[in-house]
Amino acid sequence: MSFVILAGLIAAAVRLAMSIALAAIGETVAQRSGVLNVGIEGIMLVGAFLGAYGAAMSGSPWAGLALAIAGGVALAALHGYFSITLRADQVVSGIALILLGLGLSSFLFRITLGREQTPIPAFQAVLFGQSAPVYIGIGLAIAVAFVLKRTALGLQIRACGENPDAAAAAGVRVGAVRYGCVLFGGAMAGFAGAYLSLAQVGAFVENMVVGRGFIAIACVVFGRWHPVKALAVALCFGLAEAAQIRLQSFYPQVPYQFFVMLPYLIAVVALAIYARNADLPRALGRA
Amino acid sequence: MRFLIIAVAFVVPTIFVVLAGKDPLGSWAALLGYTLGSWNGFSEVLVAAIPLTLIGLGLSIAFRAGIFNIGADGQLIAGAVLAAALAPLLAPAGPLPFLLAGFVGGALLGALVGWLRARFAANEIIVTIMLNYVAFQLLAWVIRGPLQEPTRLFPRSSVIPENLHLAVLIADTRVHSGLVWAALAAVALWIVFSRTAFGYRLEVVGASRGAAVYAGIKEARVVVGAMPLSGGFAGLAGAVEVAGIHQRLEDGFAEGFGLIGIAVALMARLNPLAVPFAALLFAVFQVGSGALQRELAVPYPIVWIFAGTIVLAVLALQCRLSSSRA
């Protein structure tokens, strides 16, 4: 009996963790190259909308996913233009993405899907009760870890994040590498948003990301800029989320809002414990 | 080039109006006609500019020190909740202690962020956003729990005692005395920034950590001092909204003000005397987006598209300026 409950809890944790994990994998790569994108919350919102819209129009969740990734890349290109080409403040550019993402997703939703009820074909479970994007995400975490650690490209990416001047002197095209990493991060944030609307919830709801983009950034920090560790940290948040939903029904006398607060409070405490560390890319945030 | 950037900032939201199948020129006419062309609309712009000014001022304190406080929404709620909770005790004393309680509520949450950053080097962007979500839940709880009105019909608090309401400044409008407080706060903060050692330390820490260390300025102490002040202004804005407009706590009573406040502070380039004018500009778009929704059924979230494009336009203009100076 307790095994069934535990298995159910873990399955729910994985399902709730993946949107955070996907965004965290992309943000890890962007930050490793030295570019901070605090706007992935906004990109995830746009991805969630475009995923639902594309799936509803085409009848296939995969087409929705492709549209969401394209939208994520487009918004990330905007961030790249400001933070890499113009060398503007990366945090301010990211804040603009949060605002734009909030506006674009809600506005476009209200003039399309929000007007007429279109059925949205969602991702179905394929293995152990999880949908295909979950396995793609796990595969991507491992692949990205391999590329970062074992390939020449990974070395170039890390060099851009640690010491861009030395990298440039060694013949690395710092701007191009950083653009590539930022676009990859945007694609993953778009993927993460589409996962939320197409695999986790099965619908688009305005402002449905509710801070997951920022929890993803926290995962990058706790995961010490390592994609597989970031995935593991995201799983812990998924577990906290799955547990708080169950605790609500176990303790109906405690106001449910306190349980909803839990993952956010855990993020604050964990951040305080893990913030000081030597793995931070040295040139992060400096164009 | 500068003209081009400004033009793009106007064109982008217009594209979305067209996408929504609405008349672009008619929309601009409705937006500007209501907010600037009607006394009713303009008075609402003044009303909306009050909290945006206070939040923008608070954020300019943190941003000057290089601390990205994204938590004004949470600090605003903390201030409003503390003030509303103490309202029965403060009733005999009048609105001033009520506003002070709001300041203290926001300052406490800000102090927590400052302490986490100074003591543990915790990234304030993530911490403040996480605390926003905690504060949203706190508000949702108090108006359904300890502070809910006695009839328990709606998720909202009782009306605060009459004695605490802010006076209406202009008859037949909602413009209240918070307008005066916001203007005074802007001048006071300008004096702090330009005439005090604390303002100078903020500037140095924000401009260059290395220079601050060399000058013997303790960064941690400046951060711990700046964050409560920054949060306090947001908390004050929360208390002002409660005492001046809503007279009670309710769901989403100041939703998204903190995010627009960021745009206000950035547009004003962290200059306190410019903040009220930036707040007025964003208030035009905020109130104008409401008018667009009512009159032409243009979805209200266009307000965030306005805000996002303006932030990017300001950023682009700054880049042009700094590159032409160099």
Descriptive notes:
- The complex is a heterodimer of chains A (287) and B (326).
- Chain A has 287 residues and is an all-alpha fold.
- Chain A has one domain (2-274): ABC transporter involved in vitamin B12 uptake, BtuC (Orthogonal Bundle).
- Chain A is 75% helix and 2% strand.
- Chain A has eleven helices and two strands.
- Chain A has a two-stranded antiparallel sheet with strand order 1-2.
- The radius of gyration of chain A is 19 Å and the shape is globular.
- The N and C termini of chain A lie far apart (55 Å).
- The model of chain A has no long low-confidence stretch (mean pLDDT 88).
- Chain B is built from 13 helices and no strands.
- Chain B has helices at 2-19, 24-35, 39-64, 72-90, 95-120, 124-142, 178-195, 197-207, 209-214, 219-246, 257-267, 275-296, 302-325.
- The chains are: A mainly alpha (287), B mainly alpha (326).
- At the A-B interface, helix 4, helix 9 and helix 11 of A face helix 5, helix 6, helix 11 and helix 13 of B.
How would you summarize what this structure contains?
With 287 residues, chain A is mainly α. Chain A has helices at residues 2-32, 40-58, 61-85, 90-111, 132-150, 152-162, 164-169, 174-201, 212-222, 227-250, 256-274, and strands at residues 125-127, 130-131.
Q: Termini separation of chain B (Å)?
A: 17 Å
* Net shape of chain B: globular
Helix content of chain A: over 70%
Structural class by SSE content of chain A? mainly alpha
**In which range does the helix fraction of chain B lie?**
over 70%
**Secondary-structure element order of chain A, N to C:** HHHHEEHHHHHHH
Query: Architecture of chain A, according to CATH?
Result: Orthogonal Bundle
Largest sheet of chain B: none
Strand runs of chain A, count: 2
Task: Indicate the mean pLDDT of chain B.
Answer: 88
Question: Which sequence of SSEs, written as H and E, runs from N to C of chain B?
Answer: HHHHHHHHHHHHH
Q: What Rg of chain A do the Cα atoms give?
A: 19 Å
The CATH C-level name of chain A is: Mainly Alpha
In the sheet with the most strands of chain A, the strands line up as 1-2
Structural class by sheet pairing and helices of chain B: mainly alpha
Residue stretches of chain B low in confidence (pLDDT < 50, at least 5 long) are: none
What is the domain tally of chain A?
A: 1
Low-confidence stretches of chain A: none
According to DSSP, the number of beta strands of chain B is 0
